[in-house]
Amino acid sequence: MKAIYLLLTAALLTIHSAGYTQGITFSGKNVPLKTIFSAIQKQTGYGFFYDPTLLTKAKPVTLNVVNAPLSDVLAVVFKNQPSAYSIENKTILASKKNVPIQTTAKQNGAGEKVIQAESAATTTTLIK
Q: What pLDDT is stored for residue 11 in this prediction?
């Protein structure tokens, strides 16, 4: 009997929360991120927090969505950008994208250990 109450409560909470998810409708070609952020904020009530210098490096986005979930829209908007996003409560945080670093270690002819770190932007070599 308790299991039935638990399942019914979970189902009702899921239905209740689905009622509050609002789809985003937006259409534009080569639109700056700031314009898209403003449209998302008006339609969802989510605010944006970001360093303005991120927007100077951002590429314009072509977007055509009708009643799309926020997570899908953000995934498309940030797909080829130098920034990433995370959602905290009703705030979308845009930040610089972390660049993965690949390291390799080997010994050179002099017996020294050489560590080389490479990312998309830089290559660093350390000799120990």
A: 52
Please measure the distance between the N-terminal and C-terminal CA atoms of the chain and give it in whole angstroms.
Answer: 67
Q: What confidence tens digit (pLDDT) does each residue in 9-36 have?
A: 555 544 444 444 579 999 999 999 999 9
Long-range contacts of 51-58 (CB under 8 A, 24+ apart): 51/94, 51/95, 51/96, 54/82, 54/83, 54/94, 54/95, 54/96, 57/82, 57/83, 58/32, 58/33, 58/82, 58/83
Long-range contact list for 68-72, CB < 8 A, 24+ apart? Answer: 68/23, 68/24, 68/25, 69/21, 69/23, 69/24, 70/21, 70/22, 70/24, 70/40, 70/44, 70/46
**Residue at 82: amino acid letter:** P
Q: Is 51 helix (H, G, I), strand (E, B) or coil?
A: coil
pLDDT at 10: 53
**What are the counts of helices (DSSP H) followed by strands (DSSP E) for the chain?**
4, 8
